[in-house]
Amino acid sequence: MKSGKKIEFAPYCYLVPSMLIFAVFLFYPFFKTIYLSLFMTNKMGQAKLFVGLQNYIDLLNSKSFQNSLKVTVVFVLIVVVGGMLLGLVAAVLCNKAFPGIRVFSTAYALPMAIASSSAAMIFQIMLHPTVGIVNKLLGLDINWLNDPRTALYCVAILTAWLNSGINFLYFSAGLGNIDETIYERASVDGASGVQQFFHLTLPGLSPIMFYTVVVNIIQAFQSFGQIKILTEGGPNESTNVIVYSIYRDAFFNYRFGSASAQSVILFIIIMLVTLVMFRMERKGVNY
């Protein structure tokens, strides 16, 4: 007499609604993008002429796309480092209990609740060459957002500040999991505040640091709203990151095949960076 486990199909039925949602809003657009990247399209985005990898070859030989890659790398580095540094400093400052701590904590987490479009509009007024508060405080006369030398840094700093709010919450949660007694022992042994930070706080934050780095990198690569409002990829393509280049090619130049190829390249870049980060985490690299 054969014995075997009876397969229950009822549990899998509960997954059907979620799988349908994934299929419609995730899997279909993903494979459709790969499909369109192999074609020349009309203005309606319909595939008309199969060109294979020609869209990718044209992109890799395009000076505009090469510039977008360089701009994106610089933008991501500033956003990730700046956003994490701001969040970490704010979390450390609010880690101790003192009067008004809730007010400061709310203020540091506030960027998380502000829409990027709203922040971009406020930032645009602050950086205005004639009435902006930045020029008035510094006594300068710089057109920050229309100067190729400063536009990218301005947009990146705004994005880093927007990301600092959620980073503050991540690091605050991580600091809350560190045993306070180790600081007391370190103080008894004569360790200074700086030594405690580098030898106790940062190692204790290593797990949450890894997660925060990965999330910040992905968010930085996908930043769009603030660039659209502040600079629209200019001046002279100095802020033309890959995401905005995709938007411009698809909805201004109606080159959906090229835009799809750029989307696939962006996906590959993010996937490779994420895989490298996970490989480094498995090898025990501290962040």
Walk me through what this model shows.
With 287 residues, the protein is mainly α. It has one domain: MetI-like (MetI-like fold, Orthogonal Bundle), CATH 1.10.3720. It contains 14 helices and 2 strands. Strands 1-2 form a two-stranded antiparallel sheet. Strand 1 (39-41) and strand 2 (47-50) form a beta hairpin. The model has no long low-confidence stretch (mean pLDDT 89).
Structural class by sheet pairing and helices: mainly alpha
- Per CATH, the superfamily is MetI-like
CATH class: Mainly Alpha
DSSP helix count? 14
**Sheet of most strands:** 2 strands, antiparallel
The CATH architecture can be given as Orthogonal Bundle
List the uncertain runs.
none
Q: Would you report the number of β strands?
A: 2
Strand content: under 5%
Q: Order the strands across the largest sheet as they lie in space.
A: 1-2
Q: Which whole number gives the mean pLDDT?
A: 89
Helix content: 55-70%
* Rg, Å, rounded: 24 Å
Protein name: Sugar ABC transporter permease
Membrane topology: Multi-pass membrane protein
Organism: Schaedlerella arabinosiphila
Main location: membrane
What is shown here, in short?
The protein has 287 residues and is mainly alpha-helical. 68% of the residues lie in helices and 2% in strands.
Please outline the helices and strands.
Layout: H1 10-13, H2 16-36, E1 39-41, E2 47-50, H3 54-60, H4 63-93, H5 101-109, H6 116-126, H7 133-138, H8 151-176, H9 181-188, H10 193-204, H11 206-221, H12 225-230, H13 242-251, H14 256-282
Antiparallel strand pairs: 1-2
